[in-house]
Design brief:
The chain is mainly β. Helix content is about 15%, strand content about 45%. It is globular.
Length: about 160
């Protein structure tokens, strides 16, 4: 989590197949519509394509297997991309839509039950507006994604 206990943190709320995630705003480098993606020849499963962003080639990835998206086999293709800059690399994560920025009190966050298997799922937040937000540790997710992209690129 981005702040010490008791301090509010700002998060971008992104949605995929009716589930909502809170992404630490400090880890987000921007949001874009999912347009202009070029297919990756022999791309790995989960690679949606590549695009140029401010002169950098960025790999767009499905978040479904990483965030344990329910019913990840059927449904619409994601329409929005969230850019993360991790370890000198920008990665685009695909969501259905971006809902806006919220401030969450760190004391209201509960540990995520899947943290052991997925260390990038750090906490859960519940309220009337979102019902349930799963808080993502952007640095941990970004490092795992970058590791996967690099590993698959050299394999």
């Amino acid at each position: 989590m981005s702040k010490e206990n008791g301090m509010p943190g700002q998060y971008l709320v992104a949605e995929r197949r009716g589930q909502a995630w809170a992404l630490p705003l400090a880890d987000v480098r921007g949001g874009l519509p999912r347009t202009g993606l070029e297919p990756v020849p022999r791309g790995e499963p989960g690679w949606l394509g590549v695009l140029a962003v401010r002169g950098e080639i960025v790999v767009a990835l499905s978040i479904d297997p990483w965030l344990d998206v329910i019913d990840s086999v059927a449904g619409p293709e994601p329409e929005a991309l969230v850019l993360f800059r991790v370890q000198g690399t920008t990665v685009a994560l695909a969501f259905d839509r971006l809902r806006g920025v919220v401030t969450l009190d760190q004391d209201a966050l509960k540990p995520h039950p899947a943290t052991v298997e997925r260390p990038w799922l750090s906490a859960v937040f519940s309220d009337e507006r979102y019902a349930r937000l799963e808080v993502v540790d952007g640095a941990a997710l970004g490092a795992a994604l970058v590791g996967q992209v690099i590993e698959e690129a050299i394999a």
